[in-house]
Write a structure and sequence with these properties.
This protein has about 260 residues and is an alpha/beta fold. The protein has 2 domains: about 10-185 and about 225-245, NAD(P)-binding Rossmann-like Domain (Rossmann fold); about 185-225. The protein has helices at about 20-30, 40-55, 70-80, 105-130, 150-170, 190-200, 210-215, 225-235; strands at about 10-15, 35-40, 60-65, 85-90, 135-140, 175-185, 250. A 7-stranded parallel sheet has the order 3-2-1-4-5-6-7, sandwiched between helices. α1 (about 20-30) packs parallel to α2, α1 (about 20-30) crosses α8 (about 225-235) and α4 (about 105-130) packs parallel to α5. The longest helix has 29 residues, at about 105-130. The chain is globular. The two termini are about 25 Å apart.
């Protein structure tokens, strides 16, 4: 299927590795020119070169931290009028007892996992509305639908972003501007590998047996391929997805047990 977005411009944050890079590659494979941002300049430049060589599109790399005003300003200076914005937050906040976190812990989590994406939406959606085309995809987490007790710092801000996006999405869709969320489950990424190792160590089972049990417990019986996630992002960014908005799509191999 031709997704109808060749020649469009996309901004993808956290695109030097993992799910952000997978989304960038999927968009570039459809002929979308990219501006990508990440904190590690060396890794980012390498990713930009590889993405450009693999797809032939124009790739602009911006080294910075999207959770800061300076990082967002640099991103918008490099790509002031994107047609597609993929909001991908940084590392997940620490785990712990939600009743023990202080105000600064909550402020940091809210900034990284809600307000940063909200500010990027605020800066780019009005232009999309004026031009009559826009796609925003927020990468959040499966914990939005299945909260985990010791991950409140990650869950609450993402729920806030989900609520904000749902309301705005109903106002912009008549202008062919959609806003949706992608909720990754257990994906085969570097970040999730570290998460699995930390969890196994915490549970006193660092030999990999826990990982095998987790694989067997999921309906798909495997970890998700980042390329599958990237393809979902590309479709939500497509011309054909103009009637899909305000949705939170789980990409989790069926781990979420609900019907909706």
């Amino acid at each position: 299927m031709d997704l109808g977005i060749a020649g469009r411009k996309a901004f993808v944050s956290g695109a030097s590795k993992g799910l952000g890079r997978a989304c960038a590659l999927a968009l570039a494979s459809e002929g979308v020119n990219l501006t990508i941002l990440a904190r590690d300049a060396g890794r980012l430049e390498k990713a930009a070169a590889e993405l450009g060589a693999a797809t032939g599109v124009e790739v602009t790399a911006v080294a910075g931290d999207i959770s800061t005003e300076e990082g967002r300003a640099a991103a918008l200076a490099a790509c002031p009028d994107p047609d597609i914005v993929v909001n991908n937050a940084g590392d997940a906040p620490p785990r712990g007892d939600c009743l023990q976190w202080g105000m600064e812990d909550w402020r940091a989590a809210l900034n990284d996992h809600m307000l940063t994406s909200l500010m990027m939406i605020r800066a780019t959606v009005p232009g999309m509305v004026e031009r009559g085309f826009g796609r925003v995809v927020n990468i959040t987490s499966g914990i939005v639908k299945m909260p985990i007790a010791n991950m409140a710092l990650a869950t609450a801000p993402r729920l806030g972003l989900t609520g904000f996006a749902a309301g705005l999405a109903r106002q912009t869709v008549r202008h062919n501007v959609t806003i949706n969320n992608l909720l990754p489950g257990a994906m085969d990424t570097e970040r999730f590998k570290v998460h699995r190792e930390e969890l196994a160590k915490h549970e006193g089972n660092p030999d990999g047996a826990k990982e095998s049990a987790q694989l067997a417990s999921g309906p798909a019986g495997r970890w998700g391929d980042p390329a599958e996630f990237g393809a979902a992002c590309a479709f939500l960014s497509s011309a054909q997805a103009g009637y899909i908005t305000g949705q939170s799509l789980s990409v989790d191999g069926g781990r979420f047990p609900g019907t909706l």
